[in-house]
């Protein structure tokens, strides 16, 4: 679906993806309303009837449509929203990083509504309305998007960047035996050829990965009398070579986010299991659903975003001189550090939970409520929310800012890919712990039937150790990271000057 972005206008893609997602949500709603599309409700004392093949097919197709639609909307809408600000305009330039803050704030607010209001509707009114309300909201958003079309600033498509990346690789391989030129200024530059993919500025030559520079070495075979443009499978411009270099340089820092999301996902797995065993009663008749503990994460994340934008940035700007307060690399480092403390504290909270269970003779009674308030878990949830406000938004900023101009939707898609990879990493880690911690009696650190007899704190501390190593790895990558050097055309005519070129070396960091 991302490939499609480069051949059509982005708002058409977003509209198509929104309709796909909407179709999936409507199908889910209908399956919850019509009795024939779902198994009958379970009766007390009777075995629940399983869904038949047709009912499962409708469910899976609905989920698939929703996943495809949301998977395409998320990266495209971030890039599309940020593209509404003109980076060549000094007044709009600083608005881009603010957009990421408030985009993530709105997304977090919607998730907070989902785990509170929507869950309440599902539990107390019915799944028809519980799924129907989000479907109605999705329909309203599509209508609002359509009516806003005349107001959008749209970037014209300029061909597939993936083809350009392959062309650079092929050209560099074909010229692998050529000697490198003595002066980088001799490498091929063609501003007219790159005009459609360098609106915000032209990428300049960097010294890393010199083997790729061979794709820009000019030879007599690259041109023919009948061709006005070179054969791009043999010769590429410096700008196109630097596009590939930019992506390769981003890789190590992108990968550092995987471990963070591995830690973050535990809130919906083992932290949830911890909450289920603890006292969640606020009154005699009401108790907090274990799944609603994520409210503390979302609330702290939203509060941190507001604090960051309104207090932290203006305060730090006085000391750093950076318009956004601190660089996005520094912002990510702060998030990594906070996340380390979140999992470290989670391990100690698990020890306390098990000590209380032991003191009351509940170690062998996994279904009994341990007399310890669930609010002991709040610190780890809150710290995860604060960490996410720093690192996730910083990660998005980094991917968008440092990606080649024509690949920003792909770069932001990599952010969501890191979240996916973190979930898979968590599954792999749990599988390995099950295997290597298994005793002769079949027990392991993470038992399925009795968490009180497990060693969940060891699991949290393993993740803490991995995060410490990941933080060291990230700091090393950040220290030696080379920001893309961008030569932009700056208009000084409002000051009585002539137009001129200005070099921006990581100017938005």
Please characterize this protein's 3D structure.
This protein is mostly helical and 509 residues long. Among the domains are: 147 residues, no CATH class; 84 residues, no CATH class. It has 13 helices and five strands. It has a three-stranded antiparallel sheet. Helix 7 runs parallel beside helix 12, helix 10 packs antiparallel against helix 11 and helix 11 packs across helix 12. The two termini are 30 Å apart. It is found in: Membrane. This is Major facilitator superfamily domain, general substrate transporter. It is a multi-pass membrane protein.
Order of helices and strands: HHHHHHEHHEHHEHHHEE
| Unreliable stretches covering 5 or more consecutive residues | 1-8, 492-501
Structural class call reads mainly alpha
Number of helices: 13
**Euclidean distance between termini CA atoms:** 30 Å
| Largest sheet report | 3 strands, antiparallel
The value of Rg in angstroms is 27 Å
Strand order of the largest sheet: 1-4-5
Overall pLDDT, averaged? 82
Based on Cα principal axes, name the global outline: globular
In which range does the helix fraction lie? 55-70%
* Binned strand content: under 5%
Count every beta strand, where a strand is a DSSP E run of 2 or more residues. 5
Topology:
Blueprint: H1 10-33, H2 53-82, H3 90-93, H4 95-124, H5 127-147, H6 161-174, E1 202-203, H7 238-264, H8 270-277, E2 278-279, H9 294-320, H10 328-359, E3 370-373, H11 378-402, H12 408-436, H13 456-479, E4 485-490, E5 500-505
Parallel strand pairs: 2-3
Antiparallel strand pairs: 1-4, 4-5
Helix pairs in contact: 1-2, 1-5, 2-12, 4-5, 4-9, 4-11, 7-11, 7-12, 7-13, 9-11, 10-11, 10-13, 11-12
Membrane topology: Multi-pass membrane protein
Transmembrane segments: 6-34, 102-121, 127-152, 247-266, 286-308, 328-349, 369-393, 414-438, 458-476
Protein name: Major facilitator superfamily domain, general substrate transporter
